[in-house]
Amino acid sequence: MTANFDGYGFRSLYPGSKVEENGAKVSFKSEDSNYHVYVPSLHGKDKKFDSTLDRLADGGLKIVLAQEHHKGGLASDDNAFSTLTFDGKGKLTSTAPDLKIAINDGTAYHIDDKVTKAITGLVEIAGLLLAEETAGASIALAEEVAEDIKLIIKAFNGLSTILHYFGDDGGRLNFPAVIVHNMNKTCASIRA
Amino acid sequence: MPQLQFDPDAFAAAMNKHSEFDTSKPHGKIGWSDKSGQAMTYYNHHGLDYRTWKPDSSLARGGMALILSSKIDQERSGLDDHLVLLACFNRACGYVTVQAGVQRKAHKSAGGVVIVAQAGVDVLKAFKASVDAAIEEVLGKKADDGFEYMSSVAAANLDCMRQAVKYR
């Protein structure tokens, strides 16, 4: 089994955005701020700041998603790197420690499981997704999505604890939400 | 094929009907009229004013879930207080998980526990309690200057957001 990343599909998940740099970069707005996400590709390593995509021996993928909160003018952008690994069936296998965020080009903050509070009931998520109205949805898909959601809620929870480093800048405070939506859209663009 | 969607106008309509907020004169109706249509401002019954930013949404794989995020500002002279929230909904338009982090005037912050909507969990009540605990963690005491209303305001926002999640 081999997992693939659908770059076209990924870009289409940003309606109203601008695609720049020959399709390598998506520029979009959230609230009243500007953000960039780089489309993962095998050529990502050629550039200084880009998302990367590596194929793993088991047919899986390792994606490092490069993201920016663009401030304009001479101000340094905030940037974040989210690492997501998938097995050959496209199921997410990475965990929250792989998220790194740098504010104002300064100190990088890592999110690890130690800062995420005890999250109980995670085993229930697949069951909660299979609500009454989901007739036809497979249990396998629900379990796959449950893994994505677990990563997203852990990452967001970890980021919530360091919000004060983000100052009173609205675009920066919104960056954690932008990051987890980017991660969700990456998961939604995996084909296997 | 029906799809999970978020309707910002239904969110605003639900906010107008919610008992938490004061829409009488001179405050008036709540709508997307702030920040070039990206936010709404409103008052609670203690005369404190807030801003909610238009939520971002993304669909999980296969459209199995909708993830919503938003930020709530409590306007202060000088630096504001903030709350960021994330909620995940299933195709029955019900909660899967909800969570929030709070930030005090850019100095301190705390993440609340993640609420999983298991059977028997009153999501809004648990969410409010988690925000109260996060605020207490940030301040080292129960808030007494208006920050204590943030949890009710956030829970009311969440309730109204859920009413604006549609599967159609």
Protein architecture, described:
The complex is a heterodimer of chains A (192) and B (168). Chain A is of the alpha+beta class and 192 residues long. Chain A has one domain (4-191). Chain A contains five helices and ten strands. Chain A has helices at 7-12, 125-129, 139-160, 170-173, 175-187, and strands spanning 4-5, 18-20, 25-30, 33-38, 52-55, 61-70, 78-86, 99-102, 108-111, 190-191. In chain A, strands 2, 3, 4, 5, 6, 7, 8 and 9 form an eight-stranded antiparallel β-sheet that branches. Chain A has a two-stranded antiparallel sheet with strand order 1-10. In chain A, a hairpin with a 7-residue loop joins strand 6 (61-70) and strand 7 (78-86). The model of chain A has no long low-confidence stretch (mean pLDDT 84). Chain B has 168 residues and is α+β, with helices and mostly antiparallel strands. Chain B has one domain (4-167). Chain B is built from three helices and ten strands. In chain B, strands 2, 3, 4, 5, 6, 7, 8 and 9 form an eight-stranded antiparallel β-sheet that branches. In chain B, strand 2 and strand 3 form a beta hairpin. In chain B, helix 2 packs antiparallel against helix 3. The termini of chain B are close together. At the A-B interface, helix 2, helix 3 and helix 5 of A face strand 4, strand 5, strand 6, strand 7 and strand 8 of B.
